[in-house]
Design a protein that fits this description.
Elements (H helix, E strand, L loop, with lengths): L7 E4 L10 H8 L6 H18 L7 H16 L5 H11 L8 H9 L4 E5 L3 H4 L12 E4 H4 L7 H10 L6 E5 L2 H10 L5 E4 L13 E3 L5 H4 L3
Parallel strand pairs: 1-2, 1-4, 2-3, 4-5, 5-6
Protein name: Haloacid dehalogenase type II
Keywords: Hydrolase, Metal-binding
Pfam families: Hydrolase (PF00702)
Length: about 220
């Protein structure tokens, strides 16, 4: 089988490259208010409300987090305070990459320009890019686009900014719901799913599956 050589390799950032520990932050924040046996369900609802929050008009990511947290607390009958939203959002800036990321990304960057399409703020992503361990050609945030994934606007904006078509890129993500379903709908045929265990497999969306970024160089023949 011929190995695809894209003009650009584009990436989701949080969850795919950066260890997205929103559940851990919520656990630490609510440890005295949500009993351990219920915490996983609480943080799952928090994730689902965050997804719902990004489907409308753009707003700062702090508001996405805070609104989702308030809705989760209301559902669970748990007290919320602005300090809770502050704690979790502040924690975001401390996250680092998954252990497999720096080496796999650096090897891939030797031949291909790397582009980040991220549901982030301009001032938040600056904490994370230097920790990736590889040169990044371009960073496009939801703040710049004015929309969050899984909306199509970010992908369309990225293709326009790169002056290329869907056939020219390889998109890499650990999330089907935020990235790969939308990429599929936009005709991006070359996709990689990094199976980090937070989404269910669905081969109908036409991706190559790898377990971590260490497997990416082989996908593009390195």
């Amino acid at each position: 089988m011929a190995i695809f050589k894209p003009k650009y390799i584009t990436f989701d950032t949080y969850g795919t490259l950066i260890n997205f520990d929103m559940a851990g932050a919520a656990e630490r924040c609510f440890a005295q208010r949500v009993e351990p046996a219920r915490m996983a369900a609480f943080t799952t609802d928090f994730a689902r409300y965050r997804m719902d929050e990004v489907l409308g008009a753009w707003k700062p990511y702090y508001d996405v987090v805070s609104n989702a947290l308030q809705r989760t607390c209301k559902k669970w009958g748990v007290a919320w305070d602005k300090a809770d939203s502050d704690f979790i959002y502040t924690d975001c800036a401390t996250w680092g990459p998954h252990p497999d990321v720096p080496a796999g990304l650096a090897k891939t960057a030797e031949e291909f320009p790397l582009v980040l399409l991220t549901n982030s703020m301009d001032n938040l992503i600056t904490h994370h890019v230097p920790r990736l361990g590889a040169p990044v050609h371009m960073v496009i945030t939801a703040e710049e686009v004015g929309a969050y994934k899984p909306q199509m606007k970010g992908f369309e904006y990225m293709l326009d900014k790169l002056n290329c078509g869907p056939e020219d890129i390889l998109h890499v993500s650990s999330s089907l719901r935020y990235d790969l379903m939308t990429a599929h709908d936009l005709g991006i045929k070359n996709k990689v799913w990094v199976n980090r265990g937070h989404d269910f497999a669905n081969p109908a969306f036409g991706y190559t599956e790898i377990k971590d970024i260490g497997g990416l160089p082989a996908v593009v023949g390195l």
